Write the structure tokens for this entry.
Amino acid sequence: FQVKSENRETIWNTEEVPEGSEFDDTWDPREQPEYQILFKQCVGTEDVFFGMSRKDPSTACCEDMVIKIKLPETKYSDITLDIHDKVLDLRTPQKKLLLHLPYPVDSKNGKARFLSEEETLEVTLRPSRDFDFINF
């Protein structure tokens, strides 16, 4: 079995290159900021008291993913944020974060806000996953 490359000058086939490696920048000297990934659920009384829905506390039942990134001594205007389906790319003059996300997300409909008192960027993303017996 041999895979033919569409371009004879290429070294790697597209199947050999891991997904998201085009964002990897190992030679960048900026340090990685501290970050947290939190998951949010919309829970009602029917979920808490009666257990009428099939929701459980696992991340599979969460509606939103919140990423909190500590950016000390950073102004809002210095932040460059780029969201892809599986990668969050954040750059400032002092910090760089290339985060491979645990779930594919809806990259077009996210929210970000900078809390200047806490020096934290809060990014809220909605995971994009197929409907299953839990997420219907």
Remarks:
- The domain at 29-38+66-125 is CATH 2.60.40.790 (Immunoglobulin-like).
- The radius of gyration is 19 Å.
